[in-house]
Design a protein that fits this description.
The chain has 313 residues and is of the alpha/beta class. The protein has a single domain, classed as TIM Barrel. It is built from 11 helices and 10 strands. The chain has helices at 30-42, 58-67, 94-108, 127-139, 153-160, 186-193, 239-246, 249-255, 259-267, 283-290, 299-309; strands at 3-5, 12-14, 16-18, 47-49, 76-81, 113-118, 143-149, 168-172, 196-200, 273-278. The two termini are 30 Å apart. Mean pLDDT is 94; it is low at 222-226.
Length: 313
């Protein structure tokens, strides 16, 4: 496993991170989930990403229980705040940030999180209030660094421009061979401002592993076949997308990589990406994905990927 600095923070994160959206505490049974976390730590993954809203706290509770007793400095723990936790509890007001952080710390069984991320931008709360609350929790020692997820470039810039506010060190956008939106504005701003990106869905929810054949039902053990995990796959299951993805198979074979490794190495080709967050339901997936760390793709391979996917980009 290779590691990268997270923006201008002093956090060093593994190039492959382990996420828990739709999986741990929700769609994957506890023993399998625990085996995935143990395998991740075994192969050198130190970046663990979750959110209060995943399973309405269930993912954090699972991680708190699984990590309990481990050396706290041996892993980088990230969680998020914004989405509803009840009919009244949502958003990025000062009251919610303090309340939800305390609840997250309790579930995670820790005194602090390394990275606390705004899960989305809150248009109903003044940015100054949000950033002041985040500054306060950093000063209190409950959060080491602050990040954001799926904010637009002008929103990130506005937060950076606030005098006296804690500095954003990370961004968590969706990014993959099939979804390149951050390249337009977010990545250039992050490069300029020294913000690291920990990207989610680098495998397009498993589609880029090649496991889904066009016109065929999804494999029984796959995310798409799961009632709790497959509901957000959207256009990634469209026949034209699946057809295009099949064209990546010979490229991966020629490069000596699995499809997943090819997709992960592709997002990691950019220095502005600090870590690619995977979701895994089996430890073998963790091991396969982790092997993408350190892989450098040639210009010919990158061009071949673009040529194959051009019809669906």
């Amino acid at each position: 496993m290779e590691y990268r600095q997270l923006g201008r923070s002093d956090l060093t994160v593994s190039e492959i991170g382990l996420g828990s959206w739709l999986t741990y505490g929700v769609g994957v049974d506890t023993d399998a989930a625990r085996a995935c976390v143990e395998k991740a730590l075994d192969v050198g993954i130190n970046f663990l990403d979750t959110a209060n809203a995943y399973g309405r706290g269930a993912a954090e509770e699972f991680l708190g229980e699984t990590l309990d007793g481990l050396d706290r400095s041996s892993y980088v723990l990230a969680t998020k705040v914004f989405f509803p936790m009840s009919r009244k509890d949502r958003g990025l007001s000062a009251a919610q940030i303090h309340k939800q952080l305390e609840a997250s710390l309790t579930r995670l069984r820790t005194d602090y999180v390394d990275l606390y991320q705004c899960h989305r931008y809150d248009r109903d709360t003044p940015l100054e209030e949000t950033m002041q609350a985040l500054t306060d929790v950093v000063r209190e020692g409950k959060v080491r660094y602050v990040g954001i997820s799926e904010w637009k470039a002008p929103q990130i810039q506005a937060a950076l421009d606030l005098p006296g506010a804690v500095r954003i060190v990370s961004s968590q956008p969706q990014y993959s061979m099939l979804w390149r939106e951050p390249e337009k504005a977010v990545f250039p701003l992050c490069e300029k401002e020294g913000i690291g990106n920990v990207v989610w869905s680098p495998l397009a929810q498993g589609v880029l592993t090649g496991k889904y054949d066009p016109g065929s039902p999804p494999p029984e053990d796959s995310r798409a076949a799961s009632e709790s995990m497959g509901q957000d796959m959207g256009r990634w299951r469209d026949v034209e997308v699946l057809d295009a993805v099949q064209g990546l198979k010979p490229i991966a074979e020629q490069a000596g990589l699995t499809m997943a490794q090819l997709a992960l190495a592709w997002v990691l080709r950019l220095p502005v990406v600090s870590s690619a967050i995977i979701g895994a339901s089996r430890p073998e997936q963790v091991e396969d994905n982790a092997a993408a760390s350190g892989v450098k793709l040639s210009d010919d391979v990158l061009k071949a990927i673009d040529d194959v996917l051009a019809p669906v980009l």
